[in-house]
């Protein structure tokens, strides 16, 4: 692809701007650990919300989502429930409040707040730190795979190199350069740099999404889409089977559906809901999303920040995703047919940009997509070192070191984590394989222990430790035993192993001390099975008001999931020009927005 001078200038101008901004805020960020990792809890909630949305607008995920929309049509709106995407709704409704009340720096430090600092608490603290680091390695490999595939289609220079001890493809060289730039500005500026650049990145991405949506809307007719897709592609709902047959349209898509294992979508949806409830109740994993919650000024602002993330993320992102998918369906199908069985569906997005976005806008769009990648990657690189420095080095090795020492070690930890994660990236097979492993297997091992920690008073540090160990071992060894089974179907097995570890660890060891549990319960005030502790807290403080909001929270979660889904399907209906369905989705969006305003936003308090 031949980019114009204007396009190249926009891209390089953006890269230079982000680096300069990181160095500009580095003095403020290096004040202490609180400033470096959480922005001193002084950043406005709406800026954190835009930053969080930008961090979730990653390029690898966007490429994957364009692919599944191309292949599965509107039914693809359900497939991201693999994560599940509606875990954000649980965070928005109640978990952000509970998490922010702790006042801690990291998710691992929160574990000490929950289980205390004796042997069980320390074991649980160490295992969640290990989990956080392993998940960062997986995501770095995921980003490395995605940005490399993306870059080689757009940038004209061949950067392949033989280093003697290893040979780099051009895609790997581009990925290394972009990751190095992102790591540099993130390390220098900490949370201030991440949030500042991500707000800029979100603005760029939103403009880019609007441009792509406009191009698709004015370039493709409803009749062209209907002629390019099989019956049922434009229908949101389904039976037990996906019911899509691409024979005569693009035969190789049938092979992709068989490989993905998404054909039995009814059973898949049941598995996703089962996993999703526990994974969502577990709360945000120890990464950038949790860090945004902990960075807010108050618990109510943490909840508002999480709600804003959902509101501003999905419509613009899916406007771009749907735009590229319909353009590719109508105009690139002959090109994909010529590829035969060798078609790489993960190149749908970059090929569509190459073919349909005009010069000038290409530079803006590519800068925006680079921004999406850099924002997500930067968020992980800012969050992960806190676990090594604050939760290992400071806690167990040198608790009295000066703040400057902790910041310096944070720099070193960032470099080390990126380097190790990149090694995994060289061995990654595909974005889809990494996505399914992270969402279905690795996070499957996280769900049980982290759901129980909120709602059951008797659950202790040993139970958490052995539950996490069981989950991580299951996630590591179970999937290779069943290589032909979609990872989501293995979740119940991994979950059962983790639950067994939780229960054995809990009942074979004593409960945590009353003072630890009472401190946690009174400060966090969760609902759940806390009766013995609640009675002790009320005896000590008769004025304490226990959380009685379970029914309201459950209602808000259900409404929030529907609300979030409308933000996904409205841009799809818009670009495939289904006016009646768009109108219904918009009315549901208005109704659910009103319900959330009345029963979630208005009652928020610190």
TrEMBL record:
Keyword annotations of the record: Cell membrane, Ion transport, Membrane, Sodium, Sodium transport, Symport, Transmembrane, Transmembrane helix, Transport
Record flagged with keyword Acyltransferase: no
GO molecular function: L-proline transmembrane transporter activity; proline:sodium symporter activity
Transmembrane feature ranges: 6-25, 45-72, 78-99, 123-144, 164-187, 199-220, 262-285, 306-332, 364-388, 409-428, 434-452, 464-482, 488-508, 554-576, 582-600
InterPro entries: Na/Glc_symporter_sf, Na/solute_symporter, Sodium:Solute_Symporter
GO cellular component, one term: plasma membrane
Localisation per UniProt entry: Cell membrane
Pfam families found in the cross-reference section: SSF (PF00474)
The UniProt record lists the keyword Ligase: no
UniProt catalytic activity: L-proline(in) + Na(+)(in) = L-proline(out) + Na(+)(out)
Family designation: Belongs to the sodium:solute symporter (SSF) (TC 2.A.21) family.
PANTHER family: SODIUM/PROLINE SYMPORTER-RELATED, SODIUM_PROLINE SYMPORTER
Protein name: Na+:solute symporter
Native species: Phaeodactylibacter luteus
